[in-house]
């Protein structure tokens, strides 16, 4: 039954069904009675269920008075009064859960019990940023469908096919395929903060890791203050802030891992920059300071300081900016969308004492131009091969993240003789519906965002953990990105995205990859979800698959010490089992980096 009931001067649309103890259902922002349809259908044999349209939603108009959560809680109490319900079990989700909290506080005699789904007591900076993003999306989206598609990216789960399973289905299945590749878990007594052990999650063998979430530092501030309109009103967003600290952690092998709680300096960087909280080692210095010591003349590639060297190498008609540092087995690092060498700063700093690290700016990113004509993932893989050959690297351990991991897959398929092992972070074999929809959203965002800062603020909501947003890390990343002199243009961003979206995928060809492979996924990554990485690992013979439960899309920046230790252990294992690669004769590291015209002839 449905009818309007009078609550003060407001007519609230209400529906009731069933018999039994009374239940009041309170919806979130913009949702109506229909959002509770499955509960109304399936619980009516045991309860008398009441649902209503909040003010301004569905069939209930928005009054002229200012809207507050307290007023909406009083609306809910008025519905109970109008229907003659003395007390009820109250369930609310999202904004409705906050209304339910207020109802229990303001009218405690009316609430028999509370069910709070997806709730909060106070918005943290990350959530405030997300709310402001949604407010902007309401205005900027070209249509109601476009708004819903963008909004629902963060609301619903992404199934294996990229579509939400039908709620009417009588059975459910895990999005993770059953195979020897499995989600890594800690012992039952140690898990990521705020999480529970996933259904079907099994104990890990000793060599698998639970990846720690370092101590969360929540700034003492009332607003994230990132919204584009507000940022124009503020001259500085990164000044000193007071902050409190509380410990949150996972465990690695039963040992807690945490990091210092002070604010840290971050290296300059382009689109999504390489940074996180600092390494815990004594004597740590900001990467920006170390980068100054390693400054390289961009025209000659002559180093000024230590052994870090940079130069352009040729790939067809394209000049690719490349840098090298360290000594040992060769490693090639491949960045993702818009990322440059700086995104790998913690790896270049933390692993150069054991490996010869090589990184480069992909076409259209940083100091490498975007060539004319269509760009493809295959051409980017050929660029990576050209970098290795130009530097006389016969074979290398290859690590790539996000789009860089797809380039790494193509490199191993097209140039298998150059790849010694693969590390694929936040990867996929082919885009499913959910990932394609997210890529289309980012492409639209590059056009619609009112400024570069606004684009980064919105984009990073999907890239970094709430921990990084709340402790000020993302604010610092954005400030450094804005100061970076080699920015990717919006057109180059779109062309790079088009290359990944038009890529046919590697899923059918992955079984031909014959090198040792480690696939890593962030358990809280909303884009390259763990089930996508699991499918890649399942298709590559002998591949390892591990989930970093507490992390998102780029854990190598947020927990660099732990990430470095894991891939170092993997590479050391490969070196032990396979043996060292052949070394070119008569060429020192410095000679191999020299320009071709300057090389000594024999």
Summarize the structure.
The protein is α/β, with parallel strands linked by helices and 602 residues long. It contains 19 helices and 18 strands.
Give a structural overview.
- It is elongated, with a radius of gyration of 27 Å.
- It folds into 2 domains: 2-117, Rossmann fold, CATH 3.40.50; 221-247 and 256-578, Alpha/Beta hydrolase fold, catalytic domain (Rossmann fold), CATH 3.40.50.
- It has an 8-stranded mixed sheet, sandwiched between helices. Strands 1-2-4-3-5-6 form a 6-stranded mixed sheet. A two-stranded antiparallel ribbon has the order 7-8.
- Residues 160-191, 193-307 and 585-602 have low confidence and may be disordered.
- Helix 2 (69-82) packs across helix 3 (95-106).
- It has 602 residues and is an alpha/beta fold.
- Strand 11 and strand 12 (318-325) form a beta hairpin.
- Helices cover 32% and strands 16% of the residues.
**Which sheet architecture does the biggest sheet show?**
8 strands, mixed
H/I helix tally:
19
The average pLDDT is 77
CATH superfamily of the largest domain: Alpha/Beta hydrolase fold, catalytic domain
For the secondary structure, the number of strands is 18
Named at the architecture level, the CATH assignment of the largest domain is 3-Layer(aba) Sandwich
């Amino acid at each position: 039954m449905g009818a309007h009931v009078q609550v003060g001067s407001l007519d609230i649309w209400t529906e009731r069904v069933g018999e039994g103890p009374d239940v009041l259902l309170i919806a979130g922002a913009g949702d109506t009675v229909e959002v509770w349809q499955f509960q109304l259908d399936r619980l009516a044999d045991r309860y008398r269920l009441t649902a209503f349209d909040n003010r301004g939603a569905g069939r209930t108009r928005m009054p002229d008075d200012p809207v507050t959560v307290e007023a909406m809680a009083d609306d809910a109490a008025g519905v109970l009064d109008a229907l003659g319900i003395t007390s009820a079990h109250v369930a609310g989700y999202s904004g409705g859960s906050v209304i339910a909290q207020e109802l229990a506080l303001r009218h405690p005699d009316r609430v028999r019990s509370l069910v709070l789904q997806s709730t909060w007591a106070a918005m943290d900076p990350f959530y405030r940023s997300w709310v402001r993003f949604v407010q902007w999306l309401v205005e900027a989206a070209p249509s109601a469908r476009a708004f819903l598609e963008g909004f629902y990216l963060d609301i619903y789960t992404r199934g294996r096919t990229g579509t939400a399973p039908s709620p009417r289905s009588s059975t459910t299945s895990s999005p993770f395929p059953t195979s020897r590749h499995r989600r890594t878990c800690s012992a039952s007594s140690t898990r990521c903060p705020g999480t529970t052990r996933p259904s079907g999650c099994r104990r890990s063998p000793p060599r698998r890791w639970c990846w720690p979430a370092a101590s969360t530092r929540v700034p003492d501030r009332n607003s994230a203050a990132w919204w584009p309109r507000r940022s124009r009103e503020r001259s500085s967003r990164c000044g000193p802030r007071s902050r409190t600290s509380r410990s949150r952690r996972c465990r690695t092998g039963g040992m807690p891992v945490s990091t210092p709680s002070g604010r840290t300096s971050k290296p300059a960087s382009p689109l999504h920059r390489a940074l996180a909280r600092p390494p815990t080692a004594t004597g740590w210095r900001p990467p920006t300071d170390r980068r100054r010591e390693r400054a390289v003349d961009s025209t000659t590639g002559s180093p000024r300081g230590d052994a870090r060297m940079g130069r352009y190498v040729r790939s067809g008609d394209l000049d690719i900016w490349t840098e090298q540092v360290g000594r040992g087995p060769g490693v090639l690092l491949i960045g993702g969308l818009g990322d440059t060498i700086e995104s790998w700063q913690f790896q270049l700093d933390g692993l150069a004492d054991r490996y010869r690290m090589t990184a480069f700016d992909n076409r259209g990113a940083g100091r490498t131009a975007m060539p004319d004509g269509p760009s493809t993932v295959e051409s980017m893989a050929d660029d990576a091969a050209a970098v290795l050959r130009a530097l006389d690297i016969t074979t290398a351990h290859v690590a790539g993240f996000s789009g860089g991991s797809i380039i790494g897959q193509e490199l191993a398929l097209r140039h298998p003789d150059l790849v010694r092992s693969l590390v694929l972070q936040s990867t996929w074999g082919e885009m499913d519906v959910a990932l394609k929809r997210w890529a289309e959203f980012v492409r639209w965002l590059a056009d619609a965002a009112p400024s570069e800062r606004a684009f980064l603020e919105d984009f990073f909501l999907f890239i970094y953990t709430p921990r990084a947003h709340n402790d000020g890390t993302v604010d610092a990343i954005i400030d450094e990105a804005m100061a970076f002199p080699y920015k990717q243009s919006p057109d180059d961003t779109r062309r790079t995205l088009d290359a990944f979206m038009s890529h046919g995928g590697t899923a059918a060809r992955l079984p031909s990859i014959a090198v040792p492979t480690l696939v890593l996924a962030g358990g809280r990554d909303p884009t390259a979800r763990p089930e996508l990485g699991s499918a890649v690992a399942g298709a590559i013979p002998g591949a390892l698959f591990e989930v970093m439960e507490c992390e998102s899309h780029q854990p190598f920046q947020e927990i660099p010490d732990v990430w470095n230790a894991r891939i170092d252990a993997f590479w050391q294992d490969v070196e032990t089992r396979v043996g060292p690669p052949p070394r070119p004769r008569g060429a020192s590291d410095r000679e191999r980096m020299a320009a071709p015209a300057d090389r000594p002839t024999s």
